[in-house]
Amino acid sequence: MWGSYGYLKGNDGCLALQSFTGNHGVDMFPKQYVAATSLSAFFDVVHGALAHGYLPAVKPPSLLVGAGCRRAKLGLVSGHAYSVLDAASLVSGAKLLQLRNPWGDGEWMGPYSDHDASTARWMETAGMSLLGRKIAKEDGKFWMPVKDFAECFGDCYFVGTNRYVANTTMDFHEEFGTCGPCRGCVGGTVDYWCCLQGPRLTCAPERRGTLTMMRDAGLQLDKAGWSVSRYHEAGGFAGGTWNRVGWADNILAPRKDDDDGDEGGSPPAPDEDAVIELAPP
């Protein structure tokens, strides 16, 4: 793409993910969304978007999640794109997000990081319910409190992908502590074999619009702080209006229990647009 990754100077991370998947994106602006709802509500959306806490009868989302940093603080790089990998709610009440710097280094150095002595053993006290483990060398991955995330990151974007057998994951049920993985194994096995999720996803991968997945993940559609981004409406990018994918036009599928069949919409996006740097200086 334009020669190589090294030639990229910067652009919109959400647009890049839409170009790869063909689906539309949903931009969340943490500061505005938290002001309209609460910090806990924002965390619940991200937590749900990463396929946590779903019952077997509910289809979990399959989303790519990224974030653009707007404030350089404690190791974070301003104007830089990060991927959001995981979310965890600890018994102590702390709510954490796991991010990765695509450079492979340059990590958050605040609370719950590898460099914070006061919370250095939090993974040990959390037990086996977390997917990650403390590593001895810097690899670009780090955990940070959701409060600091909302302060430092100007936008958090989500783009839906096909859900098929290769990217099906198991919910570790962090809320149950050390019993979480056992519950996840039993529930995942029942769902995969008894409920025929594995064969079904192998033969017929799911295609759902990003906003539909976000609504199912807990996004409050009547609140400010989010917007829909469609790459085929961005003139000159990703083929412009000529590069149209069928499922990108189906912005919001109606719920089965919706009487009016409203396809929904979104409030206008905030005026500020973060410029995301993709390549290291």
UniProtKB/TrEMBL annotation:
Belongs to the peptidase C2 family. PROSITE patterns: CALPAIN_CAT. Coiled coil: none annotated. Signal peptide: none annotated. Residues 1-153 form the Calpain catalytic domain. Pfam families: Peptidase_C2. Keywords: Hydrolase, Protease, Thiol protease. This is Calcium-dependent cysteine-type endopeptidase. The keyword Oxidoreductase does not apply. Residues 252-281 are annotated as: Disordered. Gene3D superfamilies: Cysteine proteinases. It comes from Aureococcus anophagefferens. InterPro entries: Calpain_cysteine_protease, Papain-like_cys_pep_sf, Peptidase_C2_calpain_cat.
